[in-house]
C-alpha cells in the first residue's frame, strides 16, 4: 500500500462516513412511515384500502335473487344456502345463507357469477373471534323473499341504490366486460382470453 | 465531595476520634451509592429508550411509544421483565465463574463514576491520576467478558469473548495515545485539573488547541465506541454470526447487567471525550452562589456528554458492522500511527507555544463552524431530495 493510497483511503473513509451521517440525519427529521395500526390512526385502515380489496364477504340480501350461482361457484363449499320455491306466486324464499369465513380463502369466485352483485367482498379484514362457530356468518334470520329483477329501472330508491352499487361492483371487478361470457355461465370459469387487468374495460 | 469531607476533617469536625476514618469511609460509600443510583443507573436504563427512538426515526419508524407518555417507561418494563426471568446456568458451564462474570463487567461500569467530574465540586474523588484510573478500570470489562465467554462453555460465547478481549485491548492503545496530547498540554492527569486548564468558550477547549487535537479526539471517540462493543464495532455480539456473543447463555438479571454496562459505558466514554477535549463542566461565571454555579456546570457537562452520546447513537444508526480484519486494520494501521503523530505533533506544538496559540485556535474553530454549516446544508439537500414531509418534532 503506497503512501498516496493510504491517505486517499483515510480521506475517502471520512468523506463517505460524513456523507452517510448526513443521509441518516435527513431521515431523522422526516415523517416516519409507520402506520400505527390499530388505534392511532386518523382513518380506519379499512377505509384506506382499495375498492378491489378482497376482505370478508358481505351479502346484500335485499338484492339477492336466490340463484345459487355463488354456492355452486365456491370451490370449497363454504357457502351454504337453502331456498324454497313457492309454486303459486313463483317466488323464491331464501331460508338460509351462511358463509363460513373461517374456511373461505377469499378467492372471489363466488362474487363473479352473481347477477346483481349481492355477494361481494368488503375491505373488512379483522375477523378474529373466540370461537369457530361465530366465524360462520349467517345472513338470514328469518326466511326472506328473494329479489326479482324488474324489466325497467328499479322503482324503490333504496333497492336502486344497492343495485347500482352491486352492478358497479360486478362491472368493475367481478365481471369486467372482457371476460363476461365466461363468467356468466356459472359453470367452471374459463380464464379470460385477454388476460388484461380486470378493471380495464374492453 | 472528597474535598468537602477533607475540609471537615481539617476543621476538626471529625475530631481525633478513632472512628473518623470509618465515618469518612461510610460517607464516601453513601455518596458513591447516590451517584450510581441517581445518575448511572437511570442513565443506563433511560438511554435504551432514547436510543431506540433515535434509531427508529433514522429508519423512518416511530419506535417504542406505548408504555407511558411517548413510551418513556419502556425501560422500566424491559427491566422488570428481565428481573422476573429465571436465572439459568448451563449444566456444563463453570457455574462459579459464570455467575461472577456479569458482576465484574458491572464493576468495570461502576468504578469510573468515582472520578466523573460533574461540576467543580461534584466529583467523588478527584484523584491526581484520574484519567489513568479511568483507562485502567474501564478495561476491567475485558476480564468479565472473557470470563463469561469461557465459563459459558459455548463456542459462540467463547468466540464472542475472545473477539471482545482482542478488540478492547487493541483499542486501548490508540485511546491511551490520544489521551496523552491532553496530558501534555494540561500537565496533569487529574480530571478536574484537565478541565480547569480549559476555558468555557470553544476556542479555549483542547479540541481546538492545535491541529493535532481534532484527529486525537476523533480517535478517542471511535475507540470508545469499539471498547463499548457498539456498532459498527459490535462484533462480539454480532447476532448474525454469534447469536449474542458472550451473553448467549445468560438470562434475566445477569444478562441485564451486561447490557446495562454496555449502555452505561456510553456515558463514561462520552464523558472522557467531553472532559479531555470539550472543556468538561466549564461554564461562564454567571452567578456568584456556589450552588447555582455548580448546577450550571452540571447542566453544561451533561449537555456535552449527552450530545456525544447522541452522536454515537446516530453512528450506530448509520454504519453497518465492520469485518473483524477491517476492525483490526483500522486500529493498527490507521489509529495507532495517527495517534502517535498527534502525540509528537502536540509535543512540538507545546514546545513552540507553551501557553497555546490563540490564532490557531480561532482558525480551527472557524474551520469547525464552517464544517458544521456545510454538513447542515448537505442534510438539507438530502431532506429536500427525498421530497418527504419533514417533521422536526422528536415525538411523533
Ligand atoms: S371467496 Fe372463494 S372460498 Fe370464499 S366463499 Fe367465495 S368462492 Fe368460496
Ligand atoms: S349469486 Fe348472488 S344472487 Fe345468486 S344466490 Fe348468490 S348472492 Fe344471491
Provide a descriptive summary of the structure in words.
The complex is a heterodimer of chains A (202) and B (396). Chain A has 202 residues and is α+β, with helices and mostly antiparallel strands. Chain A has a domain at 46-174: Alpha-Beta Plaits (2-Layer Sandwich). Helix content of chain A is 29%, strand content 13%. In chain A, strands 2, 3, 5 and 6 form a 4-stranded antiparallel β-sheet that branches. In chain A, strand 2 and strand 3 form a beta hairpin. With 396 residues, chain B is mainly alpha-helical. Chain B has 14 helices and no strands. Chain B is globular, with a radius of gyration of 22 Å. The mean pLDDT of chain B is 84. Bound molecules: iron/sulfur cluster (2 copies). Residues 57, 73-74, 76, 78-79, 99, 104-110 of chain A line the site of one iron/sulfur cluster.
**What is the general shape of chain B?**
globular
Instruction: Specify the structural class of chain B.
Output: mainly alpha
Which overall shape of chain A is indicated by the principal axes computed on the Cα atoms?
elongated
Strand content of chain B: under 5%
CATH class of the domain at 46-174 in chain A: Alpha Beta
How many helices of chain A in DSSP terms?
5
> What is the total tally of β strands of chain A?
6
* Mean pLDDT, all residues of chain B: 84
Q: Unreliable segments of chain B (pLDDT under 50, ≥5 consecutive)?
A: none
Structural class of chain A: alpha+beta
How helical, in percent, are the residues of chain A? Answer: 25-40%
Biggest β-sheet description of chain B: none
Termini Cα gap of chain A? 67 Å
Topology:
The complex is a heterodimer of chains A (202) and B (396).
Chain A: H1 3-28, H2 45-48, E1 57-59, H3 69-73, E2 79-85, E3 92-100, E4 119-121, E5 136-138, E6 144-145, H4 157-174, H5 180-184
Chain B: H1 2-11, H2 20-58, H3 74-84, H4 95-110, H5 130-138, H6 140-151, H7 155-186, H8 191-196, H9 213-227, H10 239-242, H11 252-277, H12 290-318, H13 324-352, H14 358-386
Helix pairs in contact in B: 2-3, 2-11, 2-12, 3-11, 4-6, 4-11, 6-7, 7-9, 7-13, 9-11, 9-13, 11-12
The structure holds iron/sulfur cluster (2 copies).
Amino acid at each position: 500500500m503506497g503512501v498516496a493510497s493510504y491517505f486517499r483511503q483515510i480521506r475517502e473513509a471520512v468523506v463517505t462516513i460524513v456523507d452517510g451521517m448526513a443521509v441518516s440525519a435527513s431521515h431523522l427529521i422526516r415523517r416516519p412511515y409507520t402506520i400505527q395500526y390499530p388505534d392511532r390512526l386518523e382513518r380506519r385502515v379499512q377505509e384506506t384500502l382499495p375498492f378491489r380489496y378482497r376482505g370478508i364477504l358481505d351479502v346484500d340480501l335485499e338484492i339477492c335473487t336466490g340463484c345459487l350461482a355463488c354456492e355452486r361457484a365456491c370451490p370449497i363449499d363454504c357457502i351454504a344456502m337453502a331456498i324454497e320455491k313457492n309454486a303459486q306466486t313463483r317466488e323464491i324464499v331464501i331460508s338460509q345463507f351462511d358463509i363460513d369465513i373461517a374456511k373461505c380463502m377469499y378467492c372471489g369466485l363466488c362474487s363473479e357469477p352473481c347477477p346483481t352483485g349481492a355477494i361481494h367482498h368488503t375491505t373488512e379484514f379483522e375477523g378474529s373471534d373466540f370461537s369457530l362457530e361465530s366465524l360462520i356468518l349467517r345472513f338470514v334470520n328469518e326466511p326472506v323473499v328473494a329479489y326479482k329483477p324488474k324489466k325497467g329501472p328499479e322503482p324503490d330508491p333504496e333497492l336502486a341504490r344497492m343495485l347500482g352499487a352491486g352492478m358497479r361492483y360486478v362491472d368493475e371487478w367481478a365481471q369486467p366486460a372482457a371476460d363476461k361470457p365466461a363468467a356468466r355461465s356459472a359453470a367452471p370459469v374459463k380464464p379470460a382470453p385477454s388476460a388484461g387487468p380486470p378493471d380495464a374495460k374492453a | 465531595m472528597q474535598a468537602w469531607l477533607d475540609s471537615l476533617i481539617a476543621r476538626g469536625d471529625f475530631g481525633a476520634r478513632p472512628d473518623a476514618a470509618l465515618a469518612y469511609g461510610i460517607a464516601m460509600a453513601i455518596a458513591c451509592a447516590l451517584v450510581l443510583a441517581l445518575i448511572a443507573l437511570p442513565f443506563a436504563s433511560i438511554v435504551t429508550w432514547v436510543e431506540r427512538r433515535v434509531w427508529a426515526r433514522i429508519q423512518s419508524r416511530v419506535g417504542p411509544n406505548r408504555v407511558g407518555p411517548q413510551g418513556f417507561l419502556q425501560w422500566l418494563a424491559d427491566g422488570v421483565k428481565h428481573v422476573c426471568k429465571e436465572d439459568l446456568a448451563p449444566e456444563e458451564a463453570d457455574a462459579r465463574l459464570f455467575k461472577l462474570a456479569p458482576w465484574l463487567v458491572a464493576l468495570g461500569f461502576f468504578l469510573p463514576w468515582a472520578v466523573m467530574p460533574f461540576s467543580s465540586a461534584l466529583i467523588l474523588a478527584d484523584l491526581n491520576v484520574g484519567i489513568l484510573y479511568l483507562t485502567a478500570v474501564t478495561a476491567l470489562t475485558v476480564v468479565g467478558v472473557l470470563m463469561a465467554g469461557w465459563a459459558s462453555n459455548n463456542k459462540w460465547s467463547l468466540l464472542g469473548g475472545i473477539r471482545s478481549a482482542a478488540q478492547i485491548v487493541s483499542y486501548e492503545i490508540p485511546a491511551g495515545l490520544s489521551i496523552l496530547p491532553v496530558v501534555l498540554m494540561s500537565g496533569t492527569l487529574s480530571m478536574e485539573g484537565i478541565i480547569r486548564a480549559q476555558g468555557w468558550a470553544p476556542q479555549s477547549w483542547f479540541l481546538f488547541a492545535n491541529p493535532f487535537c481534532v484527529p486525537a479526539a476523533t480517535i478517542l471517540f471511535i475507540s470508545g465506541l469499539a471498547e463499548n462493543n457498539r456498532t459498527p464495532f459490535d462484533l462480539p455480539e454480532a447476532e448474525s454470526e454469534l447469536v449474542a456473543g458472550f451473553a448467549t447463555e445468560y438470562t434475566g438479571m445477569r444478562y441485564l447487567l451486561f447490557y446495562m454496562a454496555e449502555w452505561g459505558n456510553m456515558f463514561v466514554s462520552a464523558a472522557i471525550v467531553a472532559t479531555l477535549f470539550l472543556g468538561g463542566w466549564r461554564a461562564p461565571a454567571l452567578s456568584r452562589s456556589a450552588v447555582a454555579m455548580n448546577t450550571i456546570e452540571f447542566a453544561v457537562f451533561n449537555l456535552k456528554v449527552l450530545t456525544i452520546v447522541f452522536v454515537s447513537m446516530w453512528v450506530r444508526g448509520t454504519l453497518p458492522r465492520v469485518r473483524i480484519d477491517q476492525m483490526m486494520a483500522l486500529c493498527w494501521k490507521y489509529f495507532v500511527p495517527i495517534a502517535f503523530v498527534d502525540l509528537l505533533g502536540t509535543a512540538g506544538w507545546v514546545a513552540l507555544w507553551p501557553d497555546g496559540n490563540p490564532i490557531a485556535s480561532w482558525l480551527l474553530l472557524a474551520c469547525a463552524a464552517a464544517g458544521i454549516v456545510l454538513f447542515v446544508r448537505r442534510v438539507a439537500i438530502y431532506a429536500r431530495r427525498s421530497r418527504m414531509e419533514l417533521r422536526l418534532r422528536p415525538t411523533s
